[in-house]
Structures are given as C-alpha cells and as structure tokens.
Amino acid sequence: MTMKNELKVGIAQIAPVLGDVAANLEKHLQYIEAARKEGIELLLFPELSMTGYSLREKTLDVAMPLSADVLDELAAAAGDMAVSFGFVEEASAGEFYNAQGMVKNGQLIHLHRKLNLPNYGGLEEAKWYSKGQGLELCEPFSGWPTHTLICADLWNPALPHLAMLDKPALMLAPVNSAADIVSDEFSNPQGWKTNTDFISMTYGVPLLMANSCALEGNSRFWGGSRIMDAFGNCLAEAGAEEALISAVVKLSDTREARFQLPTIRDADNRLVLDLLKKRL
Known about the structure:
Blueprint: E1 6-13, H1 21-37, E2 42-44, H2 59-62, H3 69-78, E3 82-92, E4 95-104, E5 107-113, E6 146-148, H4 158-164, E7 170-174, H5 188-203, E8 207-210, E9 215-216, E10 219-220, E11 226-228, E12 234-237, E13 243-250, H6 251-260, H7 269-277
Parallel strand pairs: 1-2, 2-3, 6-7, 7-8
Antiparallel strand pairs: 1-13, 3-4, 4-5, 8-11, 9-10, 11-12
Helix pairs in contact: 1-3
Keywords: Glutamine amidotransferase, Hydrolase, Transferase
GO biological process, one term: putrescine biosynthetic process from arginine
GO molecular function: N-carbamoylputrescine amidase activity; transferase activity
C-alpha cells in the first residue's frame, strides 16, 4: 500500500439538534457529501455530534449499540473517506459511554470512549457516563496512524503525552466547548487555542479540533474549530456558525518538526515511570 505524504482533512462544525438523532443523521450525511465534493479524505465531527451535548435524562433516548442501523448508514455514506463522529454508546444495559467512532468503507474502524469525564462548573458527565479504559491507535490511511482524544481528555496532560508516545501522524480532538460552562473567569476559547497550539507545536503533530456551534438552553457552544499543522500553525479556522473547513497536512512537515524539536524521542519514559511510581 502506497504511503501518502499529503492528506486533505476537514472539520464539519455543526449545531446538533439536542436529542434528535434522525435530524442529526441527515445533517451528517449532508456534510459527508459536501466533504466528498471538496476531495476531503478524513472528516471530523464534534463530540456527541449525533446527539448534542446537554442530554442528561435524554441519554436513555439516544444511546445506541455498535450494531445500530444509524451507524451502518454513516459507514455506508463514508465510502473511502474516513469519517469520525460522536455518539452515546450503550455497551450493555445501562452502561453508557461518550464515544467517538470512525467509519470507512462501510465499517466501524475505530472507537474511542472518553477517558476524562469532567465534573466541575456546569459539567457533570461523570453522572451519566462510564469512563473509557483504553487509548488505541487506528490507521485509516497507510502511514497515518491517528489518535483521538475527546474534549476533557486533552485537559489531563498525561493523556496527550501517552497518546503521542505512540508517534501518531494525526491527532483528532472532537470537543463540546461552551464559552462560560467552566466559570465566568475561565475563557474556553482562549484555553482551547492555548491547548491546541501547545500540543501540535510541542509534539510535532497535525491536530484537528472540532467544536459544536449549537445553542442548548443557556449554553452557547462557540465554534472556532481549527486545523493545526505539525509546527503549531493554524491552517484553517471556523467562526461561530456552521461550516465545513479543510486543509492539507503533510508527513514531511511532521518529519521536519520532530527533527527540530525531538520531544517524543527525548521523553525518557523510564525516568517518568520511576518518578510516577513514587507518587502512587
């Protein structure tokens, strides 16, 4: 299989309809078709893009198993494009996960269950979901191993570091960020800019951050989805409304960036492990 140096990636910044899977499926299908016309090869939707975020008791109404027809329909629509989307997975009766699936060629090729469930400010995910327990790579295209971290996963600094030790060529960051959901003093828009700038530049990794732009009650999700290159430069950025953005990322940039700043090479995992053991 030929390795691709360039990959055209895209973000579908949408405003999901809270609790309406059918309406959100239609929106996903429309953006998948628009992305195909633009030649996008990998398309990222926000966290919980199939359901909306502030579900609470609605979780029971929208949760679905991996065998759900809705997921099959998304997989069929994706074709040879890799499409990553968010949904509530019901792994067993009453066991729910905030999950991000990736489909391609009619199949589910990757699943990430959110690891770090926020339970502060206006966030209470730990009340509704089980914590994910795994962090696994997928490789939707030859030479493009990819990691996914969902929203608050990226605010536990150990998790991006662990993910980057696998040397992914691409990091996907589907999020649901409302401007003042943490506190009046904490700026989510500025915080996400700092977070994504830091990770892409420090580790030499292209990064896609896909946010919602929905209004759910008093929570305004501010959009601002962005595509970063391996040097920490923003290649494309959305505003506050629904949009499809795209850019081309390059393996050659990752090669050069990690040569200039060899963060992964010099991570010294043994030392970190020894220091961590002293604190357990």
